[in-house]
Amino acid sequence: MVFLEEIQKRRTFGIISHPDAGKTTLTEKLLLYGGAIQEAGAVKSNKIKKGATSDFMEIERQRGISVATSVLAFIYKNKKINILDTPGHKDFAEDTFRTLTAVDSVIVVIDVAKGVEEQTEKLVEVCRMRKIPIIVFINKLDREGKDAFDLLDEVENKLGLRVTPLSFPIGMGYDFKGIYNLWEKNIQIFESDQKQKIAKKIEYRSLNDPDLNAAIGQKSIDELNESLELVEGIYPKFDQQEYLDGELQPVFFGSALNNFGVQELLDCFIQIAPPPLAKSTDKRLIQPDEEDFSGFVFKIHANMDPNHRDRLAFIKIVSGTFKRNTPYYHVRHKKRLKFSTPNAFFAEKKEIVDISFPGDIVGLHDTGNFKIGDTLTAGEEINYKGIPSFSPEHFRYINNADPLKAKQLNKGIDQLMDEGVAQLFTLNLNGRKVVGTVGALQFEVIQYRLLHEYGAKSSFENLNVFKACWISTADEKNANYKDFLRVKQKFLAKDKRNQLVFFADSSFSLQMTQQKYPEITFHFTSEF
Ligand code: G4P
């Protein structure tokens, strides 16, 4: 019974946004409500400062912070909330995509003035593909921004969502007066002489309350009435099942910095957001309440201390309980492993725990056993699905700059790739190694880490590749397929799992190749 209650208590989610929309600020305010931290400013911003692309110290500092903020857990109203950190910087987008495989729902933060931005579009697309339940939080209402209805339109059109507001702003920016909470049916008034500082809340039960009139004036009440009529006329009624199915997305308005609308968001979130969900494997669907433990690695973090090469593998528990000092089955290695110091995460600290439940994340010390996507079970031969690699955007040859250190270099490259820092390809023709990354910044990170953690000097050499496509065909004996392998020999490589990859050097050549070889499918992710 306790086991089932523990599962029902958990809410594991991620906050996603374009950098600067207010993800860190919102996270911090949520932690304040959970009593997990005592004051604002305790969660360091985990974004890489603009323009600091060559600042290695900054990269290292960020890595340190991102371990500390990888999972932030706290208890709120008897619910165990696990927030999984998702890097906002676009060069680390792939990290975020992988983290999304471990969340049961997400909150998307949008800046009221900037509206839907590029990074948000990409991340939400991934959530939509996976039917992850989404709540939208429109932030910075204390600033001048876009009209609320225009924003809702933008969210629908650009993000392809079907929205329904569960709160609605009264005014905006200088005229921001408060929030009408459609979920709890009350109004909160924003009272502040300095808009950027503190907000006081006054609750009203109805629009006819004379005190409300005194607080915001008849004009605002009339405008609000009009807006609410529109909301009722245009948007679907909130339906929890539709939200859980990824078919309907509730929207909240507020200001994270001023702590306005945040508690409303959290209170609604714990009522509607899903507890840990079932997850597919290559064999069957695994339910969280199954007795046997199973989970998967969605993130690996190298330690900050270059003298100790141990790493922390982050495991999302899908079913059963994970117990300390218990042998579990590493499916890829076909061997049992025991963990004497599994870490659980609370706000900013981590501590050793004896037992963890579905929805929880445990951090396991690893000396090189784990790769992203690995499955750990009580003994069953299953593999969790859904940690694909996407085509990198940047490609460079990696060369060894110190022939005496070839071993160190190979080991370093191997381990960094296991961590998911970048993807490694080996050219079919000459066996040269090519590193593919999502952002140019990663090349610097790789070179720096190879040198400082493995003592290996490397250099990069440009390679003109537009996209890497994973190749499949129904019939490998087909003459046309064989022709493709021969003609395109120079552009073929293997990824780390030995899957065949085609390097297209331009969008045009990719199109031509696709046309010429219709029996071949060109995939843009490694999982198909
Ligand atoms: P991110 O994690 O999504 O990148 O965003 P972050 O929370 O760091 O917020 C980005 C900037 O927006 C910060 O200002 C933050 O204070 C501000 N901000 C967040 N929420 C609100 C809000 O509700 N209203 C207003 N007006 N601003 C908000 P900064 O100047 O870049 O950083 P800082 O010096 O304040 O830390």
**SS field, number of helical segments:** 13
Unreliable stretches, pLDDT < 50, 5 or more residues? 45-54
At the first level of CATH, the class of the largest domain is Alpha Beta
CATH architecture of the largest domain: 3-Layer(aba) Sandwich
CATH topology of the largest domain: Rossmann fold
SS content category: alpha+beta
Bound molecules: guanosine-5',3'-tetraphosphate
- The share of residues in helices is 25-40%
| Overall average residue pLDDT | 87
Q: Numbering strands along the chain, what is their spatial order in the largest sheet?
A: 27-24-26-25-29-30-28-31
- Measured on Cα atoms, how large is the radius of gyration? 25 Å
What is the global morphology?
globular
Calculate the terminal CA-CA distance, rounded to whole Å. Answer: 39 Å
Number of strands: 31
What features would you highlight for this structure?
single chain, 528 residues, alpha+beta, Rossmann fold, Elongation Factor Tu (Ef-tu), domain 3, Alpha-Beta Plaits, 7-stranded mixed sheet, 13 helices, 31 strands, globular, binds guanosine-5',3'-tetraphosphate
